[in-house]
Amino acid sequence: MRVSFIVGAVFLVSGVWLRLLLNVGQSIFCLLGSGLAAVGNIFVLNTPSQVALNWFRQDKVGIVTFTGILINLVSITVGASVPSFIIDKQSTVDDIKRFLFVEAIIVSIPIIILALLFKNRPDNAPSKAAKAVFRKER
């Protein structure tokens, strides 16, 4: 689970920072960066269920999985909606680059912190199912 999360985070952060190479008349870096971020999201999509299974009691797994998936979908929606409110027809390339830079920082900080601090599983299994999974992994 941790490896999947870190691989997804690397793709996501790389894609967001790659979009900063935007030049006038050439949007290939924006396209490639968005593609990399989308590939990173594929790796992250599975983590809510794995986190719920490894970190929460059996009676909480469903609600934690639902909450994790919902947060991911809301973040995608916000990420697709907010730029249309900030960037308009009068925006210059410098305005767009400034927006992409702020976005890159906002995305990078929590992902770097999570990648450094995120453990694959807790020291003590929260449920019988998690104990069985932990035993199989050893």
Report what the structure shows.
By secondary structure, the chain is mainly α. It has one domain. The chain is built from 6 helices and no strands. α1 packs antiparallel against α2, α1 runs antiparallel to α5 and α3 runs antiparallel to α4. The longest helix has 26 residues. The chain is elongated, with a radius of gyration of 18 Å. The model has no long low-confidence stretch (mean pLDDT 83).
Question: Which labels suit this protein?
Answer:
single chain; 138 residues; mainly alpha; 6 helices; 0% strand; elongated
Task: Give the topology.
Elements: H1 2-18, H2 28-44, H3 47-55, H4 61-86, H5 93-117, H6 128-137
Helix pairs in contact: 1-2, 1-5, 3-4
What is the domain total for the residues?
1
- The number of helical elements comes to 6
Number of strands: 0
The separation of the N and C termini measures 15 Å
The helix-and-strand class reads mainly alpha
How would a textbook summarize the main sheet?
A: none
Q: Tell me, rounded to a whole number, the average pLDDT.
A: 83
Order of helices and strands: HHHHHH
As residue ranges, the low-confidence spans are none
- Helical percent range? over 70%
C-alpha geometry: elongated
Radius of gyration, in Å, reads 18 Å
Q: What percent strand?
A: under 5%
